[in-house]
Amino acid sequence: MKMDWNGKPYYDHPPMGFWLMAVSYKIFGINEFSTRFPSAILGVFSILLIFKIGEALSGKKLVGLSAALVLGTAVWFVIRVRSGNLDSPFVFFYLLTIFLSLKSQKNFKWFPMVGLAFGGLILTKTLVGASAIFLILFLNFKQFFNIKKNILLMILGIVAFLGIVFPWYRIQLTTYSDFYQHHFVNIGTRNKTLASYLNPMYEQPLFFIHMGVRKWYYLWLASLAFLIISFKFLKRNVFLILLWNFIILYPFLTSKETELWHLIPVYLPIALITSVGLYEGILFVTSLSGYLVKTRRFPTPLRLVQNDKIRNSLYLLFFLYISFVQIKIFFKEVYPANKWIPDDVAISRAAAKYGKPIFLDDDYLPIAVFYSGKRIYPLMYQPDEKKTLVKFFQSDEMNFVVITRNWAVADLDKNNLTYKLLEKNNSFSILTR
Q1: In this predicted structure, what is the pLDDT of residue 156?
Q2: Cα–Cα distance between 29 and 374 in angstroms, integer?
Q3: Dihedral (CA of 50, 52, 56, 59) sign
Q4: CB 33 within 8 Å of CB 21
């Protein structure tokens, strides 16, 4: 139940995503494919889940399909799903939690399954996943009040949740004295204060969302505006997706440390708002055109949108067209024409064969650890007398290899320090005494 990475305890994030990778390693061996496989397969299931959620919320398979197209062609969703990280398992468990909550809303026998899915979500990424509790409560509000009928199922759901989450957190809290501070405060909130939540900084996060979803960005904003202006948000299911959008996005709008990939969970309500908003919009146009045709204030071709099949076909074709444009734009970003091994990967693999402690004079520590299969010692974490490449070669360290940038080798020459160049590529060199 305890994890370690590069020879040190690791509790930045819970273990669910890593457990899935470990299972994949057992089946396929330790390699890039097995690292990425859980992420890729859960990415596919996430697209299926958002289709089912869109269908359940709107009563239309067409809306579910359009939501799946939005999520499936959001470029940073595709990139992260292919790269083997925690984002894809997180998105999957979030969607599974909401999907099962929609099921339990109609039949509370599903609630223990909600507890299991929510437990998986919390055990993937803690505080971001906790936002789903508001949606669970919103969807099952009436069921919770019927205590006499549902008390046993409520208890089973809570037990299922605690059965997944409690053991790992108990072990970490009792083993590591700084776990709470590091896991919840330093990593979970990035040391944010309560006052910072009242100070939105929306420009950079919205820019990152635009980069991540590309062509869908303005359609999302237009759909969001329409659902609010037209009072469609008074519909319970529309209010749900707007609430989802707010609770998952707002914390990122108040943080200076928000990164592009942090915002991938926001793509989920974005996909639903865009699909539902445009569908509601086309229904509004249909209603308006019917009035204009009847009063002879508009030409008769508008009768075409009065036909359900034609209207739905136009709606679907629009989403298919934007999806095609999206894929055409980002295809080469995601699937490069020429397969090549990055310099940092190649040099990390090469360093492993020397059988000596490996020191790293750069910031790509996870890559170096994975591809070397060895423990890596970053110079930045060394004592002050060894913290830089020059200081390291001035020290009494003897049995080692160090990976550094090619340009940094010149600093050793300037200081008349002796070294042996073992290997180099376009970017990096391996040095020793």
Answers
A1: 96
A2: 17
A3: positive
A4: no
pLDDT tops 60 at residue 312: yes
User: Phi and psi (nearest 5°) for 341?
Assistant: -100, 120
Listed in sequence order, the residues at least 6 apart from 46 whose beta carbon sits closer than 8 Å to its beta carbon are: 71, 81, 88, 91, 92, 95
Crossing angle of the two packed helices 132-139 and 236-253, in degrees rounded to 10: 170
Residues with Cβ < 8 Å from 221, sequence gap 6 or more?
A: none
Place of tokens 């906790």: 130
CA 218 to chain centroid, in Å, comes to: 21
Q: 138 is written with which tokens?
A: 């919103």
Name residue 245's amino acid.
N
399: region left, alpha or beta (phi > 0 left; psi from -120 to 50 alpha): beta
Q: Parse the chain into domains and list their residue ranges.
A: 194-339, 343-432
- Helix 267-294 × helix 61-72 angle, to 10°: 130
The residue length of the chain stands at 433
Please report the pLDDT score of residue 303 as a whole number: 60
More confident residue, 338 or 220: 220
Task: Judge whether residue 3 has pLDDT over 80.
Answer: yes
Contact 208, 258 (CB under 8 A): yes
Given a contact cutoff of 8 angstroms between Cβ atoms, the answer to whether 428 and 344 are in contact is yes
